[in-house]
Amino acid sequence: MVFDVARLPLAGGIYTNFALNKRMNIPFAGNTQEDTFQYTSLNRYVSENAIRQMIAANPKITDILNTEQVNLNMMELNKLLQGHASDTKNIAKGIIEKLPFSLKNHVDEKSVTDAAYLHDIGKVLIPPEILNKNGRLTPEETQVMHKHAELGYELLKTTDINPKTLNLIRNHHQNAKKSGYPFVGKDFRADINLQIVALADKFSALTEERVYKAALTPQQALTIIYKEVQEEKLNPLVFKALVNYVNSPEYAPKTIV
User: Fold this and answer.
1) Phi, psi of 223, rounded to the nearest 5 degrees
2) pTM exceeds 0.90 for this model
3) pLDDT tens digits for 71-125?
4) Is residue 197 part of a domain?
5) 3 is a domain residue
6) How many domains does the chain have?
7) What is the DSSP string of 169-198?
8) CATH number at residue 195
9) Which residues span the domain enclosing 137?
């Protein structure tokens, strides 16, 4: 299926946020002996030591998990960062580049790309038997899986990451109809930044192989995602930007065997 997005009907309202977020000046996981790149890059938030500091600083994490015994799935987190997280970040950049200027002007690129890379950090706290189950999750398992978005937010809010990035991480499974998770209030708006992160995450997930599913081709993934435009969950101009990116020389599709 080849998409002609030039005449897509408007759907999925775009909300821009002009509020300036005050960045917390709290050093985190710093060590004078650490490599400069490690300290200044996003990777300083994803080491085992850093994550344990986050857990110690926020009792709400164990409340969400409903246990005092916290096990870190570092192997899975490292796999996510090298694969899906990096891919999601690249796709988000591609979407931003293909947006019309009138929309691109409202994008906070750093917050979007930082959130795209860190959005699944909460999965470090999800049991591997649920995260990598080869089959459909039970309702109880689905409830546990859905906690990863809020857990990522609660982990990182003890750091110096700005509030806008934190909210993108918490709500990366939400949409303009507010039918995703976790729960959001009546004042929630799926702004342009959130729609980019959520779209990049979904496209990456659909086009990669996981233990419980085969990888889809880019066209198959776009066909599925287009339904969200029709349901007014996603703005068509954001979807069009993804289509244009996928059809551009800059996009490197995954190899599907």
Assistant:
1) -60, -40
2) no
3) 999 999 999 999 999 999 999 999 999 999 999 999 999 999 999 999 999 999 9
4) yes
5) no
6) 1
7) HHTTB--TTS-SBS---TT----HHHHHHH
8) 1.10.3210.10
9) 36-246
> Can you spell out the DSSP letters for the chain?
-----TTPPP-S------PPPPPP----S--TTS-HHHHHSGGGGSSHHHHHHHHHH-THHHHHHT-S-----HHHHHHHIIIIIHHHHHHHHHHHHHS-HHHHTT--HHHHHHHHHHTTGGGGGS-HHHHT-SSPPPHHHHHHHTHHHHHHHHHHTTTT--HHHHHHHHTTB--TTS-SBS---TT----HHHHHHHHHHHHHHHTS-BTTBPPPPHHHHHHHHHHHHHTTSS-HHHHHHHHHHHTSTT--PPP--
Is 83 a domain residue?
yes
Angle between helices 48-57 and 147-156 (to 10 degrees): 90
List CB contacts of 124: < 8 A, sequence separation 6 or more: 51, 72, 73, 74, 76, 77
Amino acid, res. 234: L
Residue with tokens 């708006």: 189
* Residue 181, beta-bridge partner list: 173
Q: How far is CA 176 from the centre of its chain?
A: 16
92 part of a folded domain:
yes
